Fold:
Amino acid sequence: MKIAVCVKHVPDAAVTKRIDPGTKRLDRSGEGSLNPVDANAVEEALRIRDATGDGAEGEVVLVSLGPEKAIDSLRKALAMGADRVLLVSDPDAAGSDLVATSSLLAKALEREGADLVLFGQQASDSDGAVLWAAVAERLRLPLISQVAELTLEGGAVTGKRQTEFGYDVIRAPLPAVVAVADSINEPRYPSLKGIMGAKRKQQDVLSLADLEIEAERAGASGSRTEVLALSDPPPRGETRKLEDDGTGAEKIVEFLAEKRLV
Amino acid sequence: MTALVFLEHHFSESGEGELQQGSLGILAKASQLGEDVAAVVLGSGVEELAAEAGRYGASTVYVADDPKLEAPLPQPRVDAIAQLVQDKGIETVLFAQSILSADIAAGLAARLDAGLNWQLVDIASQDGTVVGKQSALGDSVLVDVGWISTPRLALFRAGIADPVESGGTATVERVEIRFQDHSLAAEMLEQAHEESSGPSIEDADIIVAGGRGLGAPEGFGMIEELAKALGGAVAATRAVVDAGWYPYSAQVGQTGKNVSPGLYVACGISGAIQHKVGMQSSKVIVAINKDPNAPIFEFADLGIVGDLHAIVPKLTELVRARKG
Ligand SMILES: Cc1cc2nc3c(=O)[nH]c(=O)nc-3n(C[C@H](O)[C@H](O)[C@H](O)COP(=O)(O)OP(=O)(O)OC[C@H]3O[C@@H](n4cnc5c(N)ncnc54)[C@H](O)[C@@H]3O)c2cc1C
Ligand SMILES: Nc1ncnc2c1ncn2[C@@H]1O[C@H](COP(=O)(O)O)[C@@H](O)[C@H]1O
Structure:
């Protein structure tokens, strides 16, 4: 069983995210890390690989589109136990929207021909939760999204997921694209051995030319949306944030009393 | 020039069909574009539902009534809408955010190489150019977004527009869809509806909500105690509902309930946008979270950075003491 997992390098949660008013793109210059919920997709892939027990044939490949420094984040997923990395990185790919990103990732995934392509729940910088559906369409594969419970049986994948109305159970024949919800599992922490071994695992960085993608399909020229202007959101009411110094509970009660809520 | 709104519907366990309020609201938004507004209803046994869309401002409703569209799966619907876009000269397709609609919109973007803008809170046409208002980066910035080509695809944030009854009638036009093989490969095995039981959190004036920060299902014991002391109800995030810590009927957010109590106490909740859309209209929001960078602090009236295991039980005691 070969499993490809799409993972993204995003600005670290501790970095205040901003859009650069000059380039009108997300400022990615600060500290970055692996998109937190993508660790759930990696974890699920590792569990499937190890449970199907087809030994050397079982493989988990991390596929990503991002800047070269994304490799650092990808190593964290390698340290968890993934087998290798395929990073698509090219200055011409910067600023790719959904149309461009999905077509680049689909090209990389076509090369891999995995039995199962996994995605995380959403990228923390895009709040999109959309990419998998575009990639599935480009690969012409069936799709199951928001999966909180996954089972593999008889050449098919079955996913249980939550919707606005309750729960769905959906089955799709392999190969298939599955996006997991972050409740599907508890990602493992990399072991020291995993961390040490990660550096030596295969890490391919491919340019657009390597993937035989014309530059017009990527970046701004491959995109169909644009950012026109930025403005401040409507003002919020006043907010107060206090460090708990042991009197947090008292502070809340005082506040509620002030508002006549207790 | 036509703007097309995807109308989502849902059949309850008893077979009662209903168009979703969120998507009917988008019909009203679409009329702001000054284009002809059409709607599309895709399903099995939905012709009657389709006719209703005229009352909310659609001049034409396209209906594909096909057993292959019975299950609410996205890929056959991509086939249907792509076909309509190509046959009917549609320039803009609008969706209200939902699990189903997001997957259709993104699939359609790939099928048609069409730009998709999401998290939109508004849309307008300025001198013939269509501009979307996107709330981005945890609502810290409003972005004017555009489309470089047509068709333009727009996915609106849940609950941004209420349906407006115009009292009109729509021409209903039946269409036959040609499906692609890969679109029919996924199969719905089961759909479990959850009708909620007991008092609904939608009517509660005080809500105490717990998230993954509780650490374990047992953490809800502490939340229930605080709710009891305050005389309120208990709510949860999707993360803990999915993990089986608390029932679905208590879930607040995009895929759960919309609440607007007088007081919402969020304990161990990060404040992700999909949770926020379900509770941001609460009058007073108090948050307890140990991460000073948690997004919830951006919109909580009072935020305490600290460990809920220390704060919540003490808070319960203090509230009890005050109430005597
Ligand atoms: C299409 C879609 C629909 C969705 N619909 C919904 C929805 O309807 N409702 C919903 O809620 N979510 C929804 N989500 C999920 C949403 O994006 C978040 O993943 C979810 O809200 C996170 O839940 P949480 O805050 O409980 O968990 P987390 O994001 O994991 O946050 C837990 C928080 O607890 C804090 N914490 C940990 N330990 C402690 C402690 N000891 N003391 C104090 N604080 C602590 C942490 O700092 C953290 O901020 C949806 C997502 C998608 C993609
Ligand atoms: N640049 C990228 N490279 C690889 N995978 C990605 C990339 N962007 C997003 N993903 C994957 O797609 C999921 C959803 O992303 P999004 O639709 O942007 O919220 C993420 O959780 C990742 O699994």
